[in-house]
Specification:
The protein has 411 residues and is mostly beta strands. It is built from eight helices and 20 strands.
């Protein structure tokens, strides 16, 4: 029996490519815009946009665009991004026009010599010891937007999206009680004859449970697991106008399970883990394949190239809760009889868009999405321009939007 790893939450299943009832809350108001870097005018992806109470939130897409829907007109928005100064945007009487937001790169006043003298292992151990007070003890019901896509080369062959309700028990309670249920979803699939191979993610939306690193510390954030890594202090950065220790990590040993390269971000004031970036150590191709691949047809070659993950937590003034997940898997795959293999890119992301309730009760097990389910198999092909009218979503990038239109025309 193989050891459960972070990769087990992002398992790929290769296959031949073959062609909920809860009502959304009334979101009567919306504001949209684009976020750019003030120093170079580049559009910024994965910028968090939220109301000041943090109850409604979204993130910008790859083109820096966003739309945020709320029950009533907010007085202002809070805009934050890793490495930039957070900004409060006061909304005027009318906001019919798209907001143009420019974030300034953040500056950190900590003396780099002082930072270099800090033992990174002491910082991580302090953060581990502070976990019980840094994450919510309440049972919460969170609304999320989830998207997964598959690209063959530069062409999208599969897009699926959903709104889901995520039940998170308090962080000192048993992780096995966490559940997620799909409330509304759709998929669009390219059925060209040339596309004899595709890929789907096993578990899909359960990433929000399986990759909750501060709750499932045995995956990565534990005293024992940290002994498998060399740690190094990096230059601090700002997240939400709060200074973060940045600690890079790299494997220092050979183990019976896969290891990672990456960075972790720890709030200097609260010592809470706020962000973890991880890339799989690809040095042992056989072991990596064993971890990533669930099943493939006979006669198919599979070569893993990259697996990376980002998990972020958001501080609400008292405690942190899960905010955003992003996963990328890249591999080459094709039939053995072909001379060249095709590059594939499977991507999944999820953002918590609304806090629905504190002191929440879990949904019934019969509603819950299971870790061995495939989202591909759970939603139907459907297209409607008003499909997400009453929900917050991550806007599709321009390239993805074009792909959706092309996939729709193939129906």
């Amino acid at each position: 029996m193989r050891r459960f790893t972070i990769i087990s939450a992002i398992l790929l299943m290769m296959l031949l490519m073959l062609p909920g009832s809860m009502r959304a809350q009334e979101l009567n108001y919306s504001v949209s815009g684009v976020v750019r870097d003030a120093s170079n005018n580049h559009r910024l992806p994965q910028v968090s946009i939220s109301t000041m109470d943090g109850n409604e939130t979204t993130v910008t897409n790859a083109d820096g665009h966003f739309i945020l829907k709320t029950e009533k007109k907010p007085s202002c928005l809070f805009v934050s991004c890793l490495g930039y100064d957070a900004q409060k945007i006061v909304l005027g009487e009318t906001t019919n026009k798209e907001l143009k937001i420019r974030l300034k790169p953040g500056t950190v006043t900590l003396d780099e010599l002082i930072v270099a003298a800090i033992n990174p292992r002491d910082v991580v151990n302090a953060a581990l010891s502070k976990m019980p007070e840094n994450y919510s003890h309440d049972n919460q019901l969170l609304r999320c937007f989830y998207r997964e896509t598959t690209q063959k080369g530069k062409r999208y062959i599969y897009v699926a999206e959903a709104v889901a309700d995520l039940y998170k028990s308090g962080y000192q309670r048993i992780v096995g009680t966490d559940r997620i249920a799909i409330r509304k979803g759709r998929k669009l699939v390219n059925t060209h004859k040339a596309d004899t191979l595709g890929a789907k993610i096993q578990g899909g939306p359960t990433l929000a449970i399986e990759l909750d690193l501060v709750k499932k510390t045995e995956l990565f954030l534990s005293y024992d697991e940290m002994n498998n890594y060399d740690l190094r202090m990096e230059v601090p950065v700002n997240i939400d106008d709060r200074t973060q220790y940045v600690i890079s990590f790299a494997p220092n040993t050979i183990t019976d399970h896969v290891l990672y390269y990456g960075k972790m971000y720890i709030d200097r004031q609260t010592m809470a883990f706020t962000r973890v970036e991880m890339s799989l150590d690809m040095s042992n191709t056989e072991r990596v394949t064993e971890c990533i691949l669930v099943r493939k047809p006979m006669g198919v070659r599979f070569k893993p190239r990259e697996l990376s993950t980002v998990v972020t937590y958001r501080y609400d003034g008292e405690t942190c809760r899960m905010h955003y997940l992003h996963s990328d898997v890249r591999f080459n795959c094709d039939w053995k009889k072909k001379l060249f293999s095709a590059p594939f890119h499977v991507e999944a992301e999820m953002v918590v868009t609304d806090l629905v309730a504190n002191d929440a009760k879990p949904m019934a097990l019969t509603e819950a999405f299971r870790s061995n389910d495939s989202f591909f198999d759970k939603v139907s092909v459907f297209y409607d321009p008003d499909f997400w009218q009453d929900y917050n979503i991550i806007l599709p990038s321009e390239s993805l939007e074009q792909a959706i239109e092309k996939l729709k025309k193939n129906k």
